[in-house]
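User: Predict the full complex structure for these chains.
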Amino acid sequence: MTAQATVSPAVPPAPPPAVRRRPRERLPRFVLPVVGVAVAAGLYLVFRGTATLPHDDGAAPFLFLNDVRDWVDDNRNENPLFLYLINYLRLGIGGLFDAVSAGLHALPWPALIALTAAAGWLAGGRRVALVAGLGFASFGVLGVFAASVDTLALTLTAVLLSLLVGLPLGVWAGRSRRVRRLITPALDVMQIMPTFAYLGPMVLFFQIGPASATVATMIYSIPPAIRITALAVEQVSPTAIEASVSLGATRWQTLRKVHLPMARRTITLAVNQTIMMALSMVVIAALIAAPGLGSDIIRGLSRANVGVMLPAGLAIVFMGIALDRLVMATAAPRSPRRSRYGAAGVLAAAGIGLSFVLPAEYPESWEWRIGPPVDDAVRWMQSAWYDVTEAIKNIATEGLLNPLQNLLTSSPWWLVALAVLVLAWRVSGAVPAFTALGCLLAVALLGLWEHSMETLTTVLVAVVLTLLAGLALGVAAARHPRYAALQRPLLDAAQTMPAFIYLLPALALFGTTRFTAVFASVVYAVPPVVRLVEDGIKGVPQTVVEAALSSGSTTRQLLWKVQFPMARRAILLAANQGIVMTLAMVVVGGLVGAGGLGFDVVSGFSQSSDFGMGFAAGAATVLLGIMLDRITQGAERRPSPQQQKMRIA
Amino acid sequence: MRIGSRVRLLAGVLTLGLAVTACGGARVADGTNSTAQPSPGGASAPAAAGTVRLAVNPWVGYEASAAVVAHLLKDKLGYTVELKELKEQVSWEGFETGEVDVIIENWGHDDLKKKFIEEKKVAVEAGSTGNKGVIGWYVPQWMVDKYPGITDYRNLNKYAELFKTSESGGKGQLLFGDPSYVSNEEAIIKNLKLNYKVVTGGSEAALIQSATQAQEQQKALLFYFWDPHWLFSRTKLARVNLPPYTEGCDTDPKKVACDYAELDLDKIVSKRFADSGGKAYQLVKNFTWTNEDQNAVANDITNNGMSAEDAAKKWIDANPAKWQAWLPA
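Assistant: Here is the predicted structure of the two-chain assembly.
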């Protein structure tokens, strides 16, 4: 899924990377970092175990938040803010969901499949019709038709509302620099925020149910709608606008007749992204009683049963692919063909006709029960590979996770803060460094220092593994076009899958431990990293490569001395993306034994006495995310033109 | 614009489809999710359209009870049943929002009873399930034979070294289940000054898997578990004796230093459902069975490759006398 691989507003193209080698005597480049590390190590040895901030379930901020919750609970039906605004919002959104859901459920299953296929035919012809039809038919085959329709209804509701709010805002932001500057930071935060963190506040204001699930989904899926639309509108050729204005068109006419048509393709992309984001969030929203497929996935997670989860997981993937092809097809310019209307009409009519013949519920005998065989396979795998998976898990846990966690939790808080400040300053500059520091201190004030350090450990280990894998695969793909062609569809598929799906194989292989979360996040974050690395290396001008080769460098030298340095921005961007995605996944990993903040969030909506802690942990994950983003954003602030293009695509 | 007309046509087709087939499935959306003004009169009846929303909490014993009740509601009384996979506390909140009509197996939760039954008046008790439930700490039987006195909490610190794992940070590990389960673990460890750390396995399945492995492969394990459970008939487990439960020893969650009480597991339903649930409510109220009944169904679900629905059907076919007594006259 391309969670963060969306667009940040255009930044003026950077000047060509200047080679800063002054002919002045300087210390070798490695001296400063080495001294820094040595000083930190010395300080650690001296002050180890002092000024740590151990976790306390009864910390003051948690209790305060519990009180807030109690207050809201008591005043939900008296306070005017709730009476006249929030409760109405809840009712309205819930009502919309009920209407959409009732509409979809009223369609008999053959009609729904056929109508989707017909829409596919209209949008893009036979192939899209086939993909869309088969995608929706798979819900029945997998035995989760009703739940899929619930999920579809929730997704459509959230997407509808997101677009209703997001597109106008996007158009506005595209035309006004000031608006853009105003909303960009908010969007930044919304995109860094791990999905899990929304759920606590949602329950507080909207209680459980479809309405709060819809709002949570909207928060997650609106940023791409706004960003991509803004970018699309902004990129409309100034000459076209000039021409329109000089012909006497009003602002409104220019918007409708010039801006929107010319930005159509990109806006379709915004719609598509919004749908994909929404799909991945509706699953997580099952934790706050959203109906649909997510419920099966939660059930499977809580029973450590892959067979229960897999049909639901596959259905979501197929739904994602079907909707993706459907929406993207509407963007492709095509000549109108009468025959297409005819074919679509026939298809729709056939489906509606069939629904009178076929049983009203999808017949059970046409289902393909994949649960039991999958369970058998998983059981076999668990016992056959037990030694291998145990060894991997133990090596990673004892060799990486435990030492690093010990280091971070036994360091004085000021030392960690100092390290973050220095590191961020060096990589990204003073302002991001102080932002990062502020976030870290806020985490400490929330009373979640120790758990944040645990989460940070998991994230760091996962990021290192992700980058190693991503670099290896990305370099391989850049070097061997045939391998790249093989890998690309896999990456495409991986990026359309909602985050939750990645917990499945991790859980099957490693049970519930911290390493499970690490494994899941690596699998989740590798695809975009591979892509960024591959594109970065391919972006190195051919002439430069030729020059290096003709002056006799080996492939290894070419890679280390030319390609990596020149693709540095792309690689740093990959690191940044990798970190944000890993954090999101590690937090979700709280469901499969990851501990740390993710577990606090899970407890927060599992035990009422832990509500405050969960709420605070949600906030802490956001702060941690901003901190990590600021530390690594040195690359992001100055993306090169080709990266920008890539981030849109 | 081409795209415009295409979209319009699409909308047309969809509308037409809706119009043609509106008479197909008669699934009426419920309008009961009103929180703005919880209507005390119960004007919005959940069961009017014949739908019962049954919360399913994450352990298999619960699932067994829920599956049997759901099957009877569907098959014998013709209701539609929505099974909602929810954690315990969230289920209670569902009484208020209309997401949940029935919790079929409630473990104590006096605080929630006070809040939702006494204060908010959105839920009511619907009697015992007939199951006796008790939570406790367990070790595999082989440890009892090898380490005398291990089932006495006073000796736990002596054996803490045995229970160390990569996740327990130098202390003994006490393996816990789903984070939503009823728990006094942290307080007990702290108040009895035990050198242990609670490690959350995340699910019932994790507990079962670890317990089975521990007994089969003679590995040390101290874990949180509960009766009724089918596992006791398959794996030999021994309960650790914490200071015995006395009335009120668990009132202050921070000061608990005693074992869990034996609970009479009961059913909780939403006020609306109690007022206007009709036959469905009667059935839920009458439902009562033994720990053996529940274990049989739970065992089929977990170990005999049956879906909850099939396992429930098997029990129903085998025990007509029992469930016929639950059906409303």
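Residues 2-21 of chain B form the longest helix (20 residues).
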